Amino acid sequence: MFEEASEVFENMFKSSFPLTFIVFLPAVLILVSPLPAEAAHEFTVYRMQQYDLQGQPYGTRNAILNTEARTVEAEVLSRRCVIMRLLDFSYEKYQKALRQSAGAVVIVLPQNMSTMPQDIVQQFMELEPELLATETIVPVYFALEDDELLSIYKQTHTSSSSQTSASAAEVLLHTATANGFQMVTSGAQSKAVSDWAITSIEGRLAGEGGEDLPTIVLVAHYDSFGVAPWLSYGADSNGSGVSVLLELARLFSRLYSYKRTRAGYNLLFFVSGGGKFNYQGTKRWLEDNLDHTDSSLLQDNVAFVLCLDTLGSGDSLHLHVSKPPKEGSPQHALLRELETVVSGQYPGVKFSMVHKKINLADDTLAWEHERFGIRRLPAFTLSHLDSHRAALRSSIMDVRPHVEMRKLSRNTKIIAEALARVVYNLTEKGAPSDLQIFTDQMQVQEDQLSSLVDWLTAQPRAAQLVDKDSSVVSTLEYHLGRYLKDVRKHYVKADKRDPEFVFYDQLKQTMNAYRVKPAIFDLLLAVCIAAYLGVLYLAVQHFGMLYGVLRRAAQPKSKQH
Amino acid sequence: MTLFHFGNCFALAYFPYFITYKCSGLSEYNAFWRCVQAGATYLFVQLCKMLFLATFFPTWEGGAGVYDFIGEFMKATVDLADLLGLHLVMSRNAGKGEYKIMVAAMGWATAELVMSRCIPLWVGARGIEFDWKYIQMSFDSNISLVHYIAMAAVVWMFTRYDLPKSFRLPVAVLLGLCVYKAFLMELFVHVFMLGSWTALLVKAVLTGAISLCSLFLFITLVHSN
C-alpha cells in the first residue's frame, strides 16, 4: 500500500507544482497554528497586592500561573495551584501551602461578603495584614465564587482528599472518572508601573476680617486598601471620612457665602491620595506648601489640622493626638467643643481623647495627623476606631453595609457643630451647649451623604487603580469645585532613582480552568484502544465465519423463492 | 491534552480503515488508486451538495432549541446525492460485486474521515482541555466505515438488473434508512434527550442492524443464482 501511495505522490509532484503547493501549504499552516483556548471555565481573578514601600517589598511578586489545581487536603502540594474557600481559610493552611512550595494560591471569596458569618469575616480581616506583611514569591489570587467555580472546587476537593487512602485499582478507576483542572492565567508577568501619579485635591473657603486669619485644615484620604486592590472598596475607611468632608464643605460653603456669617477663619479642605501608603499625598502637599512656596495658608497661621478617618459606624468617637493640646490653643478649643456638643446633644456617644506619640522608628505612620505633626503643625485625627491597628482600616471586607448612614450623619453633625462653635467662638459668647446651628435648611442631609458613600463604594479606589484621569478624581474635583474656591490638584510621583513607593500592574486577570487528565490516563486509554483494535482485527480476519453462518441461514430460504 | 492523546484518537479513528483495507484483500487488487478516485468523487459530490444547500436552503433562523423538522428532513434528502455518487464510482469500476462495493466504500469513507475529522482531532485533541468528544468522534468514524460499506452494498444491489422482484422492497427500505439515518439519529437525540455516549451506542446499534440486514440480502442475492 505504501509503495503505491509513494508512487502516486511522486507522479503527482512531478506532474504539477501547484498541486504540491495546495497539499503542503495547509499542512504547514495546521502544524504551526496555535492551540485554541477553549476553556471549561473562564473567570476573573484579582491578584494580591504587590508594592514596594520605602524600598521594602510587600505582597506577592509573581503573576504567572499555569499549574494543576489542588485543595489543601492533598498530600503533595508542590508546584500545584492550591484552591481555598474563605469558609475554611486559615493562616495555618495558607502557610502549609507556601511551605510545601505550592505553585500558586487561589482564594475563593463569596459573591456577597456581607452574607458571611461575622467571625469568619473578622478572622480574615485580622489575617489580611499578615498575608501582606512579607513578600510571597508565588502568585496569590482572589476569585469571586460562582456555580462553575464552586463545582471546580468541589471536584478538586474530592480528588485531592481521595488520593490519600486508596488501593491501586481505585486510583486507576479514579483517574478515568475524575477531572483534574489546569489553572492558567492569560496575562503577562507583573512589572513595576513607572511614573504613577497619585492625585490629591485641595480647595478653600476664605474667612472674613483681615489679612492674617488663622486657618483650619480638614483632611481625609480617599484611597482604599485591602489584600487585593481590585476588591478594596474601603467603605468605612475611608469612604466615610471623604463623604463627611464633602458634606462639611457643603455646609460651611453655605455659611461662608454670606458676608455676615463668614467667620474669622480660613477653611482649607484637602482630599489626599496615597493615604494607605504612608500618606504620600499629604507628605508631598506639605513639602510643596512649606518648603517650595513663598506664601501659603499652611505657612502662616494654622489653628489646627483635623483629619477625618473611619467615621461610619460605632457609638464612640476618638480624637487621636500625638501631643495633648495646650490649654487655650485652638486645638484645645475644638477638643472642648467636641466634648460640649457630645455631652449636650448626643449623650449616647462616647467621646475620648487618645494620646499616642509619633514613633519615627516605625515603617509607616499610624494616623494621617502624624504627617502634620512631624512638620510641627497642630493636628489630630477623629475616628470611631480606638487604635490605628484596627483591621478594618485595610480590609477587603470593608464594604458598603459596614457604613451605617444614621451614625455617619450623626458624626457629621457633631463635627459640624463643634467646628462652628470654634470658628464663631460661640462658647465664649455664652451660647448654651445644646444650641444647634445646622438645623432646618442647614441640616446635614443624610440622603446626600448616603449617595456619596454609594458612589465612593461603587468602584474599588485602591491607590494603584485611581490614576489622575480616573472618574473618582474628576468627580471629587467637580464636587469640591461646587462649594469651594481655588480647587487644585496635586500630583505625587515617586522619585526615579530612589522611589518611595512602587506599584505593580497585572492586578486583575482572566483565569482559565481547563479540564485535564493525568498522564497515566493516556496510557490506560492507549492500552484500551490497542485491545479494541486487536479485537477488531480478529473480527475482520474471521469475517468469513459470519459470512458462512448467514449464508447457511439464507440458503434454505432462498430455495423457497 | 497532549500529543499522546491525539495519537490515541488518531489510532482509534484510522487503524480500523487500515485493517479493513489490508484484510479485505483490496491491497492485492491494486485498488489504492481506485480508492483515491472514489475519494475524489466524494469531494465532488460534497461540493455539489454544499452548493445546492447554500442555494436552496437558506439558514433557518428559528429560536434556539427549536427543532426544524421539515428543514432537517429536506436537508437529509439532499444526501440522496451520496447514493448517486456511490453508483457513479461503482459503475466506473469493473470487477466482482464485493470488489466494487469495497473500493467505493473505502474510498468514500476514507475521504470523509480525512476531510471532516482530521482537523478537529488535530486541533481539539491536542489542546489543553480534555474532552471525551474526540474519543467519541473516533468511534464514530469506525461506525461510519461500516455504514458506507452497507450503503455501497445496498446501492449495488439496487442497481442490478437481475434483482428479483421480492428484493425490491427491502432494498429500497434499506436505501431509505441509509440516507435518512443521520436525520433519524438527530431526531432520536432531540426527542429522547440522549447523552453523547448513549447516542453513540444507539448509532452503533442502528448501523449494525442496517448492515447485518444488507449483508443478509447480499448473501442471498449472490448465492441464489
TrEMBL record, chain A:
InterPro entries named among the record's database cross-references: Nicalin (IPR016574), Peptidase_M28 (IPR007484)
GO annotation, cellular component aspect: endoplasmic reticulum membrane
Transmembrane regions listed in the UniProt entry: 523-550
Domain Peptidase M28: 214-369
Record flagged with keyword NADP: no
Annotated membrane topology: Single-pass membrane protein
The entry's keywords: Endoplasmic reticulum, Glycoprotein, Membrane, Signal, Transmembrane, Transmembrane helix
Subcellular location, record wording: Endoplasmic reticulum membrane
Top-rank taxon: Eukaryota
An annotated GO BP: regulation of signal transduction
Pfam families registered for this protein in UniProt: Peptidase_M28
Keyword Oxidoreductase: no
Summary of the function given for this chain in its UniProt record: May antagonize Nodal signaling and subsequent organization of axial structures during mesodermal patterning.
Family named by the database record: Belongs to the nicastrin family.
Protein name: Nicalin
Automatic annotation (TrEMBL), chain B:
Major localization listed first in the record, in broad terms: membrane
Transmembrane segments: 101-123, 143-159, 171-194, 200-222
Domain of life, per lineage: Eukaryota
Keywords: Cell membrane, Endoplasmic reticulum, Membrane, Transmembrane, Transmembrane helix
Compartments (UniProt record): Cell membrane; Endoplasmic reticulum membrane
Pfam (any one): DUF2053
Gene Ontology CC terms: endoplasmic reticulum membrane; plasma membrane
Membrane topology, record value: Multi-pass membrane protein
Family the UniProt entry places it in: Belongs to the TMEM147 family.
Name of the protein: BOS complex subunit TMEM147
Provenance organism: Conger conger (Conger eel)
